[in-house]
Amino acid sequence: MDTVIYLDNNATTRVAPEVVDAMRPYFEELYFNPSSVYEPARRVHSAVEKARKTVAKALGGVRSDEILFTGCATESNNAAIFGTVAANPLRKHVITTGVEHPAVYEVGRELERRGFTVDFVPVDDEGRINTVAYVRALRPDTLLVSAMHANNETGVIFPVAEIARLAKQTDPSIIVHTDATQTAGKLPIDLRSELRNVDLLSLSGHKLHAPKGIGVLFQRRGTPCRPFLIGGHQEDGRRAGTENVAYIVGIARAIELAAENHDEDESRIRELRDHLERELVARIPYVHVNGGAAERLSNTLNLAIHFIEGEGMLYQLSAAGICASSGSACTSGSLEPSHVLRAMKVPFTAVHGSVRFSLSRYTTREEVDRVIEVFPQIIDNLRRLSPYWDVAKQAPREKALSMMEQTEMEHV
Ligand code: PLP
C-alpha cells in the first residue's frame, strides 16, 4: 500500500505493535477455550482474568467483576440501555443528547417507538450540552440518563461527572450511562472518584490502538441491568459467548499502554493539532472550528469550510494520500448532513463542507505539515467550482458573513 497520512483516528486506530505482540500467543500456542478444565485452558482463563483486572485498574481501580468484555462499543451501548430498560419495567422516561453516536441515538429513537418518552437534550452552537434544558428534563420517574463523554465528530467533552451528579441528586435510583468510546486512552477515566456517580460506561478497543471487534462495558455492582446476550455462563452469565481471548488481552494491553504514555502523548498530540488548526485557519478564508470554543479532545479538529461542496474535499484529500472524514465513520458516505453539526446549527454554507482531522500517537509533524501544504489548495480548487462561492466572493464581506449565519441557504 502507498504511504498514507492517516488523520482519521476517531474512526479507527492502527493496532499498536505492543498489542499485536501481547495477542499473538493466544492465536498460536494458547488457543484453548477458557471454560475448559485442562491445564492449558486454565492458563487462558487466567489471561482473561488478568486482562479484566488491568482494565478495572485503569478505570480508577474499580472491581474486576464490574468489567464485562463485549464485541464493540455499539454492543456495550445497546446492552447498557436495553438491559436497563428490561430490568426496570416501571419507568418509561429516558434522557440522552441530540449529538450521541448512532449507537446511542438510534437506540433512543427505538425506545420512542416502543412507547418510552425520550428527551434528546440540545447542545449550543459550540456543541456544549445545554445544562438548563438537561436539568429541566430530569424527572422523578426518569429511568436512565445516557450522555457521551466526548463527541466523536467534534471532540467536544461533556461534563459527565456533573451530569451524573445532577441525576443522582434528583433521584439516586436514576441510572447513568456514558459512552466513553472517544475518551478512553485520551482522558483519565476514574470511576471511583470523579465519575463515581456513573453506573454504566462503554468503550471500544479499536479507538485506542487495539483491534476492531472488542469492547468493554463497565457495570457498577448493584446496577439493575438484564443481560443482553444469553445462552452461556461466560462473563458471570451477563454476556454469553466464548470469550474473544486474544482481543481481550489486546484491549487490556492497549489500555495499559495508553495509561503509561498518556502525558507525553497528550501534550505532543495537542501541540500538533493546535499547529494544524492555527495554520489552516490562517490560510483558508471563511473557515471556523466546530466546537472551537468548547473544551475538546486534544486530538480532534473539525473545520467548517464555508461555500464548498464537501464530498469532493475528501476525495481530493484521498487523492493526495490523506485520510480524513466528513463526519463519523458511520455517517460519512451519506449526503445527509451529520445530525451532530445540525444540532450545533452549523450554517448551511458549511454543513456539507465540514471535515474532521483526528490525530494519534503515531501522527508526525511531517504529516501535519503536508496537510497544511495541500489542503488550502484543495479548498481553493473546489471553491472555484462552487456556485455558493461565486455568490459569496462577489458579496461584501459583511453579506458573506451574514450568509454564514444562516442554517438554510436561500440564495443559490
Ligand atoms: N460511540 C462512539 C462515540 C463512537 O465514536 C463509536 C465509533 O465510531 C461507537 C460508539 C461505536 O464503536 P464500535 O465501532 O466499537 O461499535
User: Any idea what the shape is?
Assistant: globular
The count of strands amounts to 12
Gyration radius over CA: 22 Å
| Average pLDDT | 92
Biggest sheet details: 7 strands, mixed
Q: Helix-strand pattern, N to C?
A: EHHEHEHEHEHEEEHEEHEHHEHHH
Structural class designation: alpha/beta
CA(first)-CA(last) distance: 42 Å
Low-confidence stretches are 328-332
% residues in beta strands: 5-15%
Number of helices: 13
With strands numbered from the N-terminus, the spatial order across the biggest sheet is: 2-8-7-6-5-3-4
Helix content: 40-55%
Name every ligand kind in the structure: pyridoxal-5'-phosphate
Brief write-up:
By secondary structure, this protein is α/β, with parallel strands linked by helices. It is 41% helix and 13% strand. The longest helix is centred in the middle third of the chain and has 39 residues, at 245-283.
What this model shows, in words?
The chain contains 13 helices and twelve strands. It has 412 residues and is an alpha/beta fold. Strands 2-8-7-6-5-3-4 form a seven-stranded mixed sheet, sandwiched between helices. Strands 9-10-12 form a three-stranded antiparallel sheet. Strand 3, helix 4 (102-113) and strand 4 (117-121) form a beta-alpha-beta unit. The longest helix has 39 residues, at 245-283. It binds pyridoxal-5'-phosphate. The site of pyridoxal-5'-phosphate has 14 residues, from helix 3.
